[in-house]
Amino acid sequence: MRVLMLGVLVMAAACGAKETPTPVQRTAAEQRAVDSTVGASRLPGARGVQGALRASDSAKARAREIDSLSRTP
User: Fold this and answer.
1) What is the structure's pLDDT at 73?
2) How many CB atoms lie within 10 A of CB 34?
3) Is pLDDT of 10 > 90?
4) What is the DSSP code string of 4-72?
5) What is residue 1's three-state secondary structure?
6) Is the pTM of this model over 0.90?
7) Which partner from 5, 6, 25, 29 sits 20 to 30 angstroms from 58, CA to CA?
């Protein structure tokens, strides 16, 4: 009986070992598209994603403005 239980435990441990999946590498444009889709959905946290996208857009616009001012003689 002990041998059978040991065999079951070994089999369960062998089947339970999973490799962790590698994260998907996306370009900035691809990630923006995914975030935009999530933000437009009714998933929990979608409004937070929309807010983060707006904040990101605002920061990029501000950085472009500052950069253009520094180029003007």
Assistant:
1) 66
2) 13
3) no
4) HHHHHHHHHHHHH--PPPPPPP--HHHHHHHHHHHHHS-STTHHHHHHHHHHHHHHHHHHHHHHHHHH-
5) coil
6) no
7) 25
pLDDT reading at 17 higher than 70: no
Cα angle value 27/28/30 (rounded, 5°): 65
Q: Which amino acid is at 32?
A: R
CA atoms within 13 A on the CB side of 11: 6
Checking if the pLDDT of 63 tops 70, the result is yes
Using DSSP's 3-state secondary structure scheme, residue 73 falls into coil
Q: What is the pLDDT of residue 70?
A: 80
Does pLDDT of 57 surpass 90?
Answer: yes
